[in-house]
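Re: weekly structure request thread

Next one in the queue (294 aa):
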Amino acid sequence: MPHATASDGVRLYYEEAGSGNAVIFVHEFAGDHRSWEPQMRYFSRRYRCITYSARGYPPSDVPDEVAKYSQERARDDIVAVLDHLGIDRAHVVGLSMGGFATLHFGLKHPARARSLVIGGCGYGAKPGEEAGFRAECEAAAAAFDVEGAKAALKYAIGPTRVQFQNKNPRAWQEFADQLAGHSPMGSALTLRGVQMRRPSLYQLVEGMQKIDVPTLVMTGDEDEPCLEASLLMKRSIPTAGLLVMPRAGHTINIEDPEVFNAAVADFLAAVEAGRWERRDPRSLGSGILGFVKK
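Done, posted below.
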């Protein structure tokens, strides 16, 4: 089984398909490398596609100490996989936890990114709600410690997951079964080391304003925790476009893969053609018609 090795020795399982410019997919907390199968099949017709399982998610290693899990390690594990494969630059596509890692990749390693797709990013980002979010993460981690697969099934039926279940019960069941098969220890330590400790998006605005990499922010319109955060990223990143998928929850890449794939394909094509540019500063005025200067 192919593995890349991170700087601290943790081995990361990956798969790849296709040829051309590289696209690397970074999964959410409730997913793993398999979460991107609809995208691997679609985009590998034109791109070299890579998907991998984060640390804590078999067949990747599952370190048994929380110090091995952090937002910085999640960010740099993307680099480790690219370096192992000899890829200098890639389009980076992430969802939720993977969306946070993608954003941080763009902040720290912009020269390695051809573009960024930041999907479903924003949980726990709202000012004043940090303590509640951390408490929720700890409660979920404790449930994984004690209940294992039962906790995974509770997670799979959360307020931003029911949209997926309603649209496609069979696909949702596959997602839920895969989540139930994750390492309970890996899930708990990921919650405690990555999710609970990551900085709020509102603390990253200054850095986001310096991003010059083509960026597409995506969210579902029923993914309530990510709506305002997506607007924040759109308004802060000069190169960002925002796409809100209708009647969609959190797991947008497998909930509505056709819509997701079409949007990302159009974005990548624009980037490859050199046609995804910074926002025209004339659009930043506060007026509507442009006749009154404010």
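The CA atoms of residues 209 and 237 lie 5 Å apart. The radius of gyration is 18 Å.
Next request, please.
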